[in-house]
């Protein structure tokens, strides 16, 4: 049964004419279902995922930082090593929270739980599903980011009032990775293919100026690192927490806005192709 013949495929509200049945304006139903599921089955996994960047901060920032001393940021600010890596780990925390839910969880629902087949047999459209799933991943990323920012503040690692903007910046980072993560996952068909996500994330985590300035690399390598999405998140949040309010921050924001737009667009089109033939 196709989207044009099934009565359950009619979008609710005025959105049908504008979006061609892609959106019924009810993405909250998908988000609500995920929240109820997390409350009953996966809350332990959600909570434990928060601690990984905190352990890195304690081990690297406090332990190793005593031997390194102060570090110069890309904007010329001089901060302690712990204050240097903390905003980077905040970006990593937001990325991890968003990617976990927008990749492996989506993969299982798509290929094993057959959840999207059932959802798209109702009045929900592909854009509802995409926004609902991305919103849930975004909430997890925001939860991790908020908790980690609290740890940073308690340790005295926020050196500027602009650190208050680090939380919405981290949410933007999470939104970007959630959108892109779900778009990429929609093309994955096997667990072996899903392993490529971890294969990409680990080097990005290690080399995106997380633990040392990007200037330590040769010029061509610096260009490659600066093309990575995590580097833009690290520089955005580091600039805010250290008070380096330069025009470059808007460039990082624009990078994520484009990333979000592409991710949502490709995810919606892919879901329509897979489930509404």
In brief, what are we looking at here?
The protein has helices spanning 15-19, 27-48, 51-68, 81-111, 115-119, 126-154, 166-185, 191-207, 219-226, 229-241, 248-275; strands spanning 70-72, 78-80. By secondary structure, the protein is mainly alpha-helical.
Secondary structure layout:
Elements (H helix, E strand, L loop, with lengths): L14 H5 L7 H22 L2 H18 L1 E3 L5 E3 H31 L3 H5 L6 H29 L11 H20 L5 H17 L11 H8 L2 H13 L6 H28 L2
Antiparallel strand pairs: 1-2
Catalogue the unreliable spans. 1-18
- Please estimate the helix content: over 70%
Please tell me how large the radius of gyration is: 20 Å
Beta percentage is under 5%
The domain count comes to: 1
* Broad structural category: mainly alpha
Number of helices: 11
Number of strands: 2
- Most strands sheet: 2 strands, antiparallel
Summarize the helix and strand pattern as letters: HHHEEHHHHHHHH
Overall 3D shape? elongated
Spatially, the strands of the biggest sheet line up as 1-2
Ends: how far apart?
8 Å
The chain-level mean pLDDT equals 82
């Amino acid at each position: 049964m196709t989207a044009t013949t099934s009565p359950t495929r009619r979008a609710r509200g005025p959105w049908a004419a504008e979006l061609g049945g892609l959106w019924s304006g009810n993405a909250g139903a998908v988000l609500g279902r995920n929240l109820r599921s997390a409350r009953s089955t996966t809350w332990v996994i959600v909570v434990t995922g928060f601690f990984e960047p905190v352990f890195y901060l304690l081990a690297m920032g406090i332990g190793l930082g005593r031997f390194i001393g102060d570090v110069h940021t890309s904007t010329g600010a001089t901060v302690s090593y712990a204050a240097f890596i903390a905003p980077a780990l905040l970006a990593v925390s937001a990325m991890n929270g968003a990617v976990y839910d927008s990749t492996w969880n989506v993969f299982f629902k798509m290929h094993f739980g057959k959840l999207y087949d059932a959802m798209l047999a109702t009045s929900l459209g592909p854009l509802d599903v995409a926004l609902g799933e991305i919103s849930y991943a975004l909430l997890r990323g925001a939860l991790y980011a908020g908790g980690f920012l609290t740890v940073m503040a308690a340790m005295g690692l926020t050196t500027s009032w602009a650190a208050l903007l680090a939380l919405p910046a981290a949410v933007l980072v999470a939104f970007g990775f959630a959108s892109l993560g779900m778009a990429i996952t929609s093309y994955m068909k096997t667990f072996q293919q899903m392993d490529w996500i971890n294969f990409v994330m680990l080097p990005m985590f290690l080399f995106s100026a997380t633990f040392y300035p990007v200037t330590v690399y040769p010029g061509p390598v610096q260009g490659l690192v600066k093309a990575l999405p995590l580097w833009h998140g690290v520089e955005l949040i580091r600039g805010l927490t250290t008070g380096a309010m330069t025009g470059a921050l808007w460039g990082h924001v624009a990078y994520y806005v484009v990333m979000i737009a592409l991710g949502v667009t490709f995810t919606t089109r892919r879901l329509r192709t897979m489930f509404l033939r």
